[in-house]
Amino acid sequence: REAVETAKKTSRDYAFEVQVGAMNSLAITLSRLNQFEESEQLQRENIALRTDHYGAGHIEVTVPQANLGRLLTKMGRYEEALPLLENAYQVAMDELGPYHVWIAPRAINLGRTYQHFGRFEEAEELLYVALDQDRHIYGDSHHYVASSMRNIGNLVFAEKDQDEGITLVEQALTIEVESLGDEHLDTNQTRTLLADFYTQVGRYEEAEAMLDIADEHLNSAFDEDHIYLADLARFRGNLYLATDRPELAIESFLTSTAMFERLFDAESERLPDVLLPLAEAYSTTGNKKLAATTYARGLKILTDLGKATDEQAVRLQQLETATTAQ
User: Fold this and answer.
1) Longest Cα pair distance anywhere in the chain, in angstroms?
2) For a Cys staple, 106 with which of 86, 89, 112, 297, CB 3.0–4.6 Å?
């Protein structure tokens, strides 16, 4: 903050570069502290300043564009993020080539956004671009390589081959433990994702052990709401639901829901991933009315986003019918 304010007091070009660079760093720091609104405001101001100074198509303008795009995806605002991420990636590829250090993170963010929209072939191509670039620059055992492997594993697990996806994420976790340490946030982000994969394929004891380790490290790192903690609670809920512990599942899902609402809002795109299984947990305990209303809330968010499926609509009808019968 001090760097930004000091640089604003002079009009020299060097001071301008210091100002916009400090603004970018401050915005990223605020994002990591979950102060999303102030971070977004700073990145938009940064884009405007750089556009006025350099011109709309300049490579320097894409720096805050790329970071704003990533921030918007964290907030679940993928439609707004997509054009920013596409422009930032394409300009960098055109002007810097495939092996510049800016390419991999931009390819990852755009690839993950394509995955969100169901554009899986494009997503996979971009994620492999990032993996190839990271290996070329840093070698096979760098944590950037692990990050790319985790993203590819996530895509492969969801769309192609669960065993292959798990293997990729396991390899990513091994690299992160060795390069970053067992307590690092990135290590535990990968650990919680792997735990959820284990849950989905029935490896429940391994999943719970993974979540216990992540719980210890993440809860000691944060004393307030954080997206990692919200995901951790969600993944615990998935495990408890899969292992016939619906009361514990409800407790975990409610914790996750409340955290996501405080971090974002009551209509966040992240909420259906928690609300739909929460509804199933309510249904398992016999609370059909709360199951139906919870499922309806999650489905409304998906419908407004154009992402609801026929199967989900049928499931809501089943829950509502059960409520009437009850």
Assistant:
1) 74
2) 89
- Residue 163's pLDDT is what? 96
Is 66 strand, coil or helix? helix
Contacts 24+ apart (CB under 8 A), 79-85: 81/113, 82/113, 82/117, 85/109, 85/110, 85/113
Place of tokens 């798990």: 166
Q: 208: Cβ–Cβ under 8 A, 6 or more apart, which residues? A: 195, 239
Provide the terminal-to-terminal Cα distance of the chain, rounded to the nearest Å: 58
- Per the CB < 8 A criterion, the answer to whether 111 and 126 are in contact is yes
Q: What share of the chain is helix, strand, coil (3-state, %, to 5)?
A: 80, 0, 20
**57, HSE (Cβ side, Cα atoms, 13 Å):** 4
Spatial contact of 31 and 66, defined as CB atoms under 8 Å apart: no
Record the tokens describing residue 302, joined without a space: 């998906």
- CA neighbor of 287 nearest in space, from 250, 245, 241, 238: 250
Tokens of 117: 């929209």
Q: Is the predicted pLDDT of residue 108 greater than 70, yes or no? A: yes
pLDDT per position as a tens digit, 170-192: 999 999 999 999 999 999 999 99
